[in-house]
Amino acid sequence: MGVEILRGFAKEAIQKSVALTNFLCCLHLTNTYLFTLVLTYGPSMLPTLNMTGSLLLAERFSTRLGKVGRGDIVIVRSPVVPRRTVTKRIIGMEGDSVTYVVDPQNSNICDTIVVPKGHVWIEGDNIYDSKDSRNFGAVPYGLLEAKVFWRIWPPKDFGSLRQRAD
Amino acid sequence: MGSLKFLWDVSKSCLTAGLISLTFSDRFASIVPVRGTSMSPTFNPITDSSIKSSSDDYVLLEKLCLEKYKFSQGDVVVFRSPSNYKEKHIKRIIGLPGDWVGTPHSYDVIEIPKGHCWVEGDNSLSSMDSKTFGPVPLGLIQGRVTHIVWPPQRIGEVKRSIPPGRLPFS
Asked: What global pTM score does this model have?
């Protein structure tokens, strides 16, 4: 009798753990290949994203298929601190010539460069307080991780993120 | 009815196996082929008898190092090409942030910027590496090569080593 009970118990335990593993794998694959949630904070994307924190939904297939373009907000692995990711807007794709203000706080001297092959030029919407391509140059396309398309938090701004009107 | 249930069971276990193996290869380790001779003699060695290498080496790519992006000089890594994100290269790390490396053909010495590394192929004659495109962001690295797993006569560990004369100054 004892053996029977034990066997039934073991069978159920195996079934449960397989189901749990399946669930975790699905979660990982969805997060890696389809959609991911990102929490952003800081002043660099004002006024589009607020300073105290926004919860955003981002999709992975556009970056994977090379379908992102100028004006898209993207999640980029930081070229300076590889463990961090930053949220910026794409200003120029490869081959574009980009004019930017070198030091907007002190002067309005502009500089123009051509984005090299396989790179993108990213900037924060708040050019006065943002560490972006103006500091570290154009970033390789391979550092792009996802494209932001939906805002979840704060709830009053729930909805899709439109392109910047300019 | 019985055969239909059997088919359902088989496809269910296939799906489970696929899910688990894909997750495992994403997070922990995967096996990738090495193409080209830029890493000879470590991978795909060129022998005198046969100029074209007979077969590609298959190597084990460990991905746990991506949690912290901690590497050391001499590690062999796979990274996305900085000029084309669809291509992947396999090279050896020569210098890490803060190191100074000399470029072999000129007398320039450059400091590697924060968050970047200097990579070179073991076969300096035919290799597209940092000598052509400069320092590479660590964020492009996809994993560290630890073992050769195929062909059988070449199974073994990949040693962490720096070619003599390429030691960086720090």
From this structure: 0.86
